[in-house]
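queue> holo job accepted (adenosine-5'-triphosphate)
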Amino acid sequence: MLRQRPFLVEALTAAGLIAVPFVLPYLGFTPATVNRILVWGLFGIGFDILFGFTGLLSFGQSAFFGTGGMVAAYLLTVLDYPDVFSAVFVGMIAAAVVGYLVGLIALRRTGIYFAMITVAIAEVFYFVEFNPLAAYTGGENGLPGVPTPTLHLGFTTLKFNTDKSLYIVLAVCYFVGMVVALRIVRSPVGAVLRAIRDNPLRAAAVGHNIHSYKLTSFVIAAAYAGFAGGLLGIMQGFMPPDAFTFDTSGQLVIQTAIGGTGALFGPLVGATVWLYLSDFLQTTLHLGATWKLVLGVVFVLLVCFLRHGIIGGIYDIYRLATGGSAAKAKAGDGTPAPAMTAEEERSATHAALAEAPAAMPMAARRRTGDEFVGPILEATALTKRYGGLLANSDIDFSVKRGERRGIIGPNGAGKTTFFKILTCEIEPTSGRIVFDGRDITGMSVTDVCQLGLTKSYQVNQLFARLTVRENLTISALAELRGKFRLDMFRSVPKIRGLAEQVEHTLALVDLKDRADVPVAALAYGEKRRLEVGLALASSPSLLLLDEPLAGMSPQERVEMVKLLKSISRGRTMIIIDHDMDSLFELVERVTVLQEGRVLVEGTPDEIKGNAAVQEAYLGGVVAA
Ligand code: ATP
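queue> job finished
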């Protein structure tokens, strides 16, 4: 919905913010509570971009919340800086800079280690604020006397010095923060962040510099935290030192979990529930210190019964209420019956593709100026050692441009390891790889994909929460925008050539009628085709396919072989598979690996009749 009617969300946000001061007092919210909700909601927008969209759970956001707030408050109270708004802005920039530096360290690790580093860093900030920097931050007293904002309009001056008038400032700030965040999540950067959340390994393998994108997300979250921290000081008239505490980070995480992640509004909804209950339990029910216990129980119940938070729950109810019609339409089930049967359509697609001139891969087009005429891939003396085990040993391997090469070998022969080395997922212990005239040994998988070499995986590596079309878009974006670009305010559909490239790939892998179906709803055979599509959408000049037929039924295999034949025109491909009949049908030459070494190389007919190959597979039964 966010993407189909972009301005609807902005309009509803504005309408909601206008209505709040008239509605919430009737529900028992004080103006001060409403203002606090907005500050926490704004703080949480950045956190949701980091956690809900990028999948990075940070427990250290208090460091940036406190930094932004303290810098703004210091400017306004100690240095007598005249303008409140620009002081908050400076605080936000300071938090973003600090976020950049912290991100450089924290993002060296992933998962639980990343989360632990953020906890440690926040603790360091808390300590520094209380001790070495107490002269600037006021230590445990904080910085009192933060002024409220005024706006000079020439003919009059607007003073925002009451809770109700401050609401206007906070509501405008929240609205601007939300509009900016919506632009970011709808941009190519937002799309890549979602891909990183779903499958960082594949996002890197299709050509995105995931470290830079994660750092971007971290800095954005820090900037939002700093902005909200500055507003906290203004709202309260003093900058409290507890902005830096672990409680602050924890409360943000809990509120976001209650409200829902990945929707930007989750933290606001969560803050509404949390702050309302905390006020209600403390001031109305006079529960004293027990209020935290009750809130804790409420949190556990909400998270257990609404796994995707309140917003996720509302979305599920909406889907149920519409009888799943939206989902059905999405899945293509509600479309009118096609004139052709599915089989006829598939055949027609393959026939059309066979007739059409083979599309020249874009990566290859990019390099037409300095065309290299030698083999597209040449590996020399490749060796990979795992401790005492030689997975690949002294392999020499060369593939001509336009060739279709098969690689076979018994289980454990070292085929997958060989592919991983060729695509630079792992470094060889020794040896050299030259791709398109360039030494790529030791390069990153992202850089190699950008040069035009990529692979499809033996076990599907898809972006599970995205649709088929969105999956292919992620891959095509890397090819069209390069490995990193900060086009945060660009709309994805406006990227030139993107729609055509995605549509073309959808047709190639025969998934046009499943384009808007989420990956989770695909059949296994369709997932395998999408796996190949992800590699294809980055327009590789050399495509490696690791067991594309693995796990397929006989009928699905026939379909896949047909499909691979159709996409092989104009491409150089290397295919590993155990299904030799299908592989021999597809390729021109075959390399046989055994115990990490090249056993023999030849045409399919030569390999079929080779006694050494039969012995390798049958352990000497044939030879005997
Ligand atoms: P299969 O056909 O079963 O997929 P394969 O030919 O692809 O096998 P590889 O997966 O490349 O073989 O494995 C080659 C050898 O290297 C095996 O003995 C395997 O156990 C070993 N190996 C692979 N990866 C690692 C690793 N990360 N650490 C240690 N040993 C490994």
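queue> The chain is about 55% helix and 10% strand.
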